[in-house]
Design a protein that fits this description.
The complex is a heterodimer. The termini of chain A are far apart. Chain A is globular and about 95 Å long. Among the domains of chain A are: 1-167 and 220-252, no CATH class; 326-520 and 531-549, no CATH class; 619-668. Chain A is mainly α. Chain A has helices at residues 2-23, 29-54, 77-100, 113-126, 130-148, 157-183, 191-197, 204-219, 228-234, 237-262, 268-290, 295-322, 326-361, 372-375, 377-390, 397-410, 418-450, 457-460, 467-485, 487-493, 495-502, 530-551, 577-593, 619-639, 647-668; strands spanning 58-62, 71-75, 596-600, 611-615. In chain A, helix 3 packs antiparallel against helix 4 and helix 5 packs antiparallel against helix 6. Helix content of chain A is 69%, strand content 3%. In chain A, the strands form 2 sheets. Chain A has a two-stranded antiparallel sheet. A two-stranded antiparallel sheet of chain A has the order 3-4. Chain B is mainly alpha-helical. In chain B, 81% of the residues lie in helices and 0% in strands. In chain B, helix 2 runs antiparallel to helix 3 and helix 6 (150-170) runs antiparallel to helix 7. The relative contact order of chain B is 0.14. Classes of the chains: A mainly alpha, B mainly alpha.
């Protein structure tokens, strides 16, 4: 019944996209399409919530797809949770799209694909056999690719689309092979069968690395992240929010489904890779973000960072589970899942904010913005809440889930393996570094974009965005606050999912009073009460405000923001994003990005301007992507000759190939 | 199974291979077509013998199809084609006849060595038939590769297809529909190729495929 409702909403989404094909050119088409999409997503959220509360695995079979096999669907706690994440993101993006979509130059290139993209993500999560899963996965990739390419005339979009489709095909290939091995010699692609026999002893390592490659490249694990910062900003902002906030979570779902559920019990050694990759991804993601002055690209890099945090939690869960420490495993898994939810909320919120800025000013370059808090105060408020949440500041939701991840790390001394005992605290330190750098990065993003004085006329004449966009932003901001103040409600809801993955769950949080502190695990002296922290912050804020009002110097003194005491009238001499990032670049940049600064000072007597030129190189790109790309280009160049052969030579080639193969066979058999 | 049954089927399949060698040796189009007709006739006899040996009467239909289409209709059409195109002249073989024959022998050796070993577990009829069939296929390809004239390439292709049919009938239990559809697709291929030949000649005044190469910008 519930799963039928979910499939019906998927069918509705597909129907909407067909209708959108027909009506996309009309004037009010956007509102109708986005409105209908929001309704379909709301139905799906409700159904998935019922499914999560019901905690029963419901299966459903449709006689479409492969003959004699059909399509299998299944709703269990894990898929219900991810369906909530997907459709909540879809709903808020649709509401935002109602307003934001009006700025779209070519709505017919966005409207038909948007609901189809959501339908694809829903189907991935619902699929219960490898064929449906891969089909939905590819559909999701293609639809999002079409959305990335919707502004195809803009510079860099073509390159972003190209790299995205190459990486998407790569991830598809890796997952295809993984499922092929999991299906075993009988070739049964139903998840139930795979779950029953798990991964064979010899092939588990191959399957695990393939899944890590396939799901990791979609989620944005370093060094497979290169397409994220290109493709996410190229799409329209509400689609960026979906791709960054939701589609990466679908990839996390794929990893959890295969590594935790289908493969059966795994050796602890696999967790080392996941924890290590998670830590590296978190730090590298945030360092990349700090070097960026493009607002949306910065957010995309932060997605990489948060994926790192999520994978660290998942890796810890694998490590604890392999050693039978189920309570700790449940804590780590719940932390990761809670962060999945939180990240989808605040990342969507931040992308909406940057979309509002982009629509209003026409630029994503922070160095051309500034002072927007005066003209767009509501957008600024929403963005600030999102920025505080992603920087893991209490009492918001980002803090709650990252705190839980750290609590899981603190339990790592209980692990019997020395390698893990050393690794987990080291990765914990990396996460702490990433969290601090993230806070710095959002001080930069918010400060340069919204504070100070406008750097260009476009920023000066910006206007506040429309009410639908604001409604979507404030709804998500409210969710950030609620999930931060009463995290217990969310961790309780995650209990069934955690039970499914780790055969245990976090201690049930008594919610008799909202202020009851969050207990990570039994016998743990640490606890966190969001309400108390919020109350204290409110109290401290009020006291400070009153103290300033009462005791501060009443004589008003006008001076320039970011003026550093210099009454300079030039707007360009304000503190810029580049200057904010410079100290951090000096510390980490040489190591991580081979950063070089070239300073050109004009010789005495020359009136030309002094110049500073900074070059950054992406190590992942240089080491991992450039060599194969140039090798392929070289081989392709050589093989070009084959395009201009005579018919007889083509025939001879076929003939020779056949004879060669037959000879090999004759010698080999 | 009597030794005679096996020997006759061996003889017929072997003579198909022999005809392939004869095809390889011909340097005039009319005789090439005649040899092809003879090969097709032998094929239909081989199929007919298989029908009797396997006790599968539907193979007789295949044999009849082979006689009507390949031994009579296609050679007739090709002969008319050659006459109307006016190309009774000598074929320019790209590789000399001597090397072509040597290559053909090597191919037959390869086919035997491979097939007899791969199909060790199979029925003895099928084994022999498959080995000969592969030889015919490879020799047909060799004909296509060593000739420049489009008509002789067509004949190479048709003779290759003879090999396929031989393989198909040798294997027991091959459904009738496969053979029929192969036979008709060959007929359609003939029509298409015939039309193409006329079009090629209209445009280039020759059916030497080298003319096409020049058109493709190939300079060799």
């Amino acid at each position: 019944m519930i799963i039928a409702a979910l499939l019906a909403s998927v069918a509705l989404l597909l129907g909407i996209s067909l209708v959108a094909l027909a009506v996309a050119g009309r004037r009010q088409a956007g509102v109708v399409v986005y409105g209908a999409t929001a309704v379909a997503c709301a139905v799906a959220v409700a159904a998935a919530a019922v499914g999560l509360a019901g905690n029963q695995a419901i299966e459903f079979h449709l006689p479409i797809g492969l003959p004699w096999t059909g399509a299998h669907f299944r709703l269990d706690a894990l898929s219900a949770f991810f369906l909530i994440v997907v459709n909540l993101g879809g709903m808020s993006a649709s509401i935002f799209g109602c307003g934001y979509g009006r700025h779209e130059i070519a709505p017919q290139r966005v409207l038909p694909f948007f609901p189809a993209f959501l339908a694809g993500m829903n189907l991935v999560v619902l699929a219960n056999d490898a064929f449906s899963f891969l089909l939905a996965w590819e559909f999701m990739s293609l639809m999002s690719w079409a959305l990335v390419m919707s502004h195809d005339r803009e510079p860099d979009t073509a390159r972003a689309g190209y790299i995205y489709i190459v990486m998407a095909s790569f991830s598809m290939l890796a997952l295809l092979l993984a499922f092929g091995i999991l299906a075993g010699p009988d070739g049964n692609y139903a998840f139930d069968v795979m779950r029953a026999h798990g991964a064979a002893q010899g092939s588990a390592a191959i399957v695990f690395s393939l899944v890590l490659l396939g799901a990791g490249s979609k989620a944005g694990l370093v060094p497979l992240h290169v397409w994220l910062p290109l493709a996410h900003p190229a799409a329209p902002s509400h689609v960026s929010a979906l791709m960054s906030g939701v589609m990466t979570k679908v990839a996390v779902y794929a990893f959890i489904r295969i590594a935790f559920d289908l493969m059966g019990p795994l050796d602890w050694r696999y967790s080392v890779i996941v924890i290590g990759l998670g830590g590296v991804t978190a730090v590298m993601g945030v360092l990349y973000a700090l070097m960026q002055h493009d607002l949306k690209r910065l957010l995309a890099y932060h997605t990489v960072e948060n994926i790192g945090i999520i994978f660290t939690g998942l890796g810890l869960a694998l490590a604890f589970r392999a050693n039978g420490l189920t309570a700790a495993a449940a804590l780590a898994a719940s932390a990761a899942l809670f962060h999945v939810f939180n990240h989808s909320v605040f990342k969507s919120l931040l992308f909406f904010g940057s979309g509002a800025v982009l629509a209003s000013t026409g630029t994503r370059d922070m160095e051309k913005l500034g002072g927007l808090i005066r003209v767009m105060p509501r957008t600024a408020t929403g963005f600030l809440i999102g920025a505080a949440a992603i920087s893991a500041l209490p009492p918001l939701n980002g803090f709650a889930s990252e705190w839980l991840t750290f609590q899981a790390i603190f339990l790592s001394p209980a692990l019997p393996q020395w390698g893990l005992r050393f690794l987990a605290p080291a990765v914990g330190a990396m996460l702490a570094l990433a969290a601090a750098l993230a806070a710095a990065c959002f001080v930069k993003a918010f400060g340069v974009t919204f504070l100070g004085r406008p750097r260009t006329p476009a920023a000066e004449t910006a206007v506040e965005t429309d009410s639908m966009s604001l409604a979507a932003m404030f709804a998500l901001a409210g969710l950030c606050v609620v999930a931060g103040i009463v995290p217990g409600f969310f961790t309780n809801a995650l209990g069934t999912v955690s039970h499914m993955l780790t055969a245990s769950e976090m201690p049930h949080q008594a919610l008799v009073a909202l202020g009851t502190p969050l207990l990570p695990s039994l016998g743990n002296p640490n606890s966190y009460s969001g309400l108390m922290v919020a109350g204290l912050l409110l109290l401290a804020g009020t006291v400070t405000y009153l103290a300033v009002r009462t005791f501060a110097n009443v004589a008003t003194r006008h001076s320039l923001a970011w003026g550093c005491g210099y009454p300079d009238t030039s707007r360009n001499s304000q503190y810029s994003a580049e200057s904010f990032a410079q100290p951090i670049r000096r510390v980490f940049g040489t190591l991580a990005f081979d950063a070089r600064e070239e300073v050109f000072m004009p010789p005495p007597g020359d009136v030309g301007a002094a110049k500073i030129h900074v070059t950054l190189r992406d190590p992942a790109w240089d080491l991992l992507y450039a060599p194969p790309a140039s090798a392929v280009a070289f081989i392709a160049d050589r093989l070009n000759v084959l395009q201009f052969l005579t018919i007889r030579r083509y025939l001879s080639l076929v003939f020779l190939a056949l004879v060669l193969l037959l000879t090999v066979l004759a010698l080999w058999v | 199974m009597s030794a005679l049954v096996f020997d006759v089927s061996h003889l017929l399949a072997g003579s198909l291979v022999l005809m392939s060698f004869v095809l390889l040796y011909q340097d005039r189009l009319p005789s090439l077509i005649n040899t092809f007709a003879l090969q097709s006739l032998l094929l239909s006899l081989a199929i007919g013998w298989q029908a009797q040996a396997q006790g599968a009467p539907h193979l007789l239909v295949t044999a009849a199809l082979a006689i009507v289409l390949k031994a009579i209709l296609i050679p007739m059409v090709l002969r008319r084609l050659v006459r109307s195109l006016g190309i009774h002249r000598t074929i320019e073989t790209v590789v000399g006849i001597g090397p072509a024959m040597l290559a053909g022998m090597a191919l037959v050796a390869l086919a035997m060595a491979l097939m007899l070993r791969v199909t060790a577990a199979a029925n003895i009829f099928a084994r022999e038939d498959l080995a000969f069939a592969l030889s015919v296929v490879l020799l047909g390809l060799l004909v296509m590769v060593t000739r420049r004239n489009a008509v002789s390439q067509v004949i190479g292709f048709m003779s290759l297809e003879n090999g396929l049919v031989l393989a198909a009938t040798g294997a027991k239990g091959m459904p009738m529909v496969v053979e029929t559809s192969v036979a008709f697709s060959i007929l359609i291929a003939l029509i298409v190729i015939g039309i193409f030949l006329f079009r090629i000649r209209e445009r280039f005044d020759t059916v030497d495929v080298a003319a096409l190469d020049e058109f493709r910008g190939d300079r060799q």
